[in-house]
Amino acid sequence: MEINEEKAVMVGKFKTICVFCGSRSGNRPSFSDAAVDLGRELISGKTIGEVKTVADMHERKSEMAKRADAFIALPGGYGTMEELLEMITWSQLGIHDKPVGLLNVDGYYDNLLALFDKGVEEGFINAPARHIVVSAQTAADLLIKMEEYTPLHDRVAPRQSWEVDRLSLPHNLKPSSHLTTHF
Questions:
Q1: DSSP string, 39-56
Q2: If we measure between CA atoms, which residue out of 163, 159, 134, 158 comes closest to residue 148?
Q3: In this structure, are residues 38 and 19 in contact, taking their beta carbons and an 8 Å threshold?
Q4: Distance in angstroms (rounded) separating the CA atoms of residues 98 and 101
Q5: Are the CB atoms for 130 and 88 separated by under 8 Å?
Q6: Name one GO molecular function term (predicted).
Q7: Structural domain boundaries of the chain?
């Protein structure tokens, strides 16, 4: 699996932001427009990159999490939501203290945010943990909210306790898939 890293430098608190997005553009032009708008807000005009080979999806997400200062999810499908939810979970567990943002284009994530609220109401999500997710309808508003984000935990778990490259899996359990990731 390869990771092609493209670093987006921006003015402000974050040097590198990991953006999760769908492999399809969706049915509304506003989804593509929002992605372009986010790109304008982030990109310095320079493309700097590196290709890194990783063993599997978990290691891919671990590498992205290590290298990013924040995460943003654009509208997307199951893969986007899975990556988003893992970053939310890792924040809740204290694995990272980085902002997790939802670019809620045309209310795409309204039902997911309502589900999180329902989780709090029903006692499955602690009220402070609900604030892990920052959302806005425009890229500019989202970045401002993410700059103001206050982490849930005072400190994070030591990296060696969760990094996949430090885990020793038996050889027969190590996946052999190859993926390319752009970030």
A1: HHHH--S---EEEEE-SS
A2: 134
A3: yes
A4: 10
A5: no
A6: cytokinin riboside 5'-monophosphate phosphoribohydrolase activity
A7: 2-166
Under 8 Å between Cβ of 9 and 57: no
Distance CA 106, CA 31 (A): 8
| Tokens encoding 98 | 């980085």
User: Sheet of 180-182: strands edge to edge?
Assistant: 49-53, 2-6, 180-182
Closest CA to 16 of 54, 40, 37, 43: 43
Rounded to two decimals, the pTM is 0.77
Tell me: the pLDDT tens digits for 72-125?
Answer: 999 999 999 999 999 999 999 988 999 999 999 999 999 999 999 999 999 999
Query: Which of 58, 65, 14 shows the shortest CA–CA distance to 165?
Result: 58
